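hey so i finally got around to running the thing on that chain from the lab meeting. sorry it took forever, my laptop kept dying and i had to restart like 3 times. anyway pasting the input first so we r on the same page abt which one it is
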Amino acid sequence: MSRSSIHPDKKRTLTNTCSQLIVLLILIVLAVIMVFPSINMFSTAFKSQAEVLKFPPKIIPEHIEFSNVKKLFNNYQYGNWYKNSLFISFITVIGTVLSSSFVAFGFARYEAKGKHVLFAFLLSTMMLPYPVLMIPQFILFKQMNWMDSFLPITIPAFFGSAYMIFLIRQFFTSLSNELFDAARIDGCSEFRQWWNIAFPLSGPALSTVAIFSFIGSWNDLLGQVLYLSSTEKFTLTIGMTSMYSSATRLVPWNLVMVAAIFAVIPILLLFTFAQRYFVQSIAMTGVK
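ok and heres what got predicted. didnt touch it at all, straight out
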């Protein structure tokens, strides 16, 4: 049978199949490239220091060193770093969610003269890079005697975040006015309208804000290294940086990778919880 005698539908099906196979092959290659750093991290975490230095490196360790976990906690104050990071991130999430949602509720539900100008001014603060604010904030917190404490890192979260306010405001504006009208008729105060109506119905937006706030605080290095100087107050970012910056001869990359694995766990758990909460919040949202 000649090529010209192939039915057009079969030819089109064959072309689509070949295209899908090519796309699938490209996706597999890209997926391997993206996953390889994580595979290398897990592999290095359970190698001995001598095996880490071998060339060419091997993905599968010759001898799995589970003792690296014990060495990490014995040789460094990793448990204390972890506790400090969890505390700072937890307080930051609470402060950001409460303050940003409260301000966003005012921008979304009430009309006032100059509201849009004020909101535009608020959004304009997002254009300022952190180094611009770093020096005046440092001088302010130093005059308040907040140096070498968690206050400069956690208290600003209770004054809201421009991006988070913008994000939550966009969600608040999508809520039905009938809900708030009915609550107002029943004698619900403005505060209770935010706390009992808008807040519970804003699960997707608040979960997103919580994730962004947690990741930003969890991975923050510059903001924390400015104000924390005592070793007992070090966080994960400062402590893990000191693991290879203060090494006298060889950097313990196997212990650094073990520390990185434990550092990723809270973010994965938070994302898993928030992903479930997305579905629950969307299912419960609406006017009954």
